[in-house]
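Batch job 17 of 40 flagged for manual review because the log was empty.
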Amino acid sequence: MNTRASATNGAADGRASTTRAAGPTHQYLSFILGGEEYATDILRVQEIKGWDTVTRVPYSPDYILGVINLRGSIVPVIDLRVRFSLPSAAFDAATVIIVVHVAGTRGERVVGIVVDAVSDVYSVPMENIQPPPNVGSADHMFVTGLARLDDKLVIILDIERLVISSVLGDSKAAA
């Protein structure tokens, strides 16, 4: 993807969006989930893979769809709709698996997360990121901030905390 200043809808035309700023910026991959736009640190993204069937693992949590074989590596796949208690939706041509890598207690882990669609790549100035509101729920523990981008807010997820608590079952990471 090419980075381009002030693209209004990078997903529609294949170009990435940026916001001009004098201060430091950080790049995020954004995706759609249940009609809302989320983003994660682009440095955590290994690849984006079209939807493919997964092999279900018995007795795994309902938000773990199963595993895929990714070039010889067995990769667990998380359904973010289920993890975030969103209504289910049929997987279609836009559904993708974002393969991310995170540091775990036993070294780096590779995990897939299923999302409705990939949206854009944003370069966000640090001053455009607000802390998450305190809504009195443990569900916000995966939200690191809200990015103000032109006329919308994008929810920035701590994908490492999400994956560690979801796949590794490490409740201390989620706290």
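Reviewer: the log was empty due to a logging misconfiguration, but the result itself is present. The two ends are 35 Å apart (CA to CA). Unflagging and moving on to job 18.
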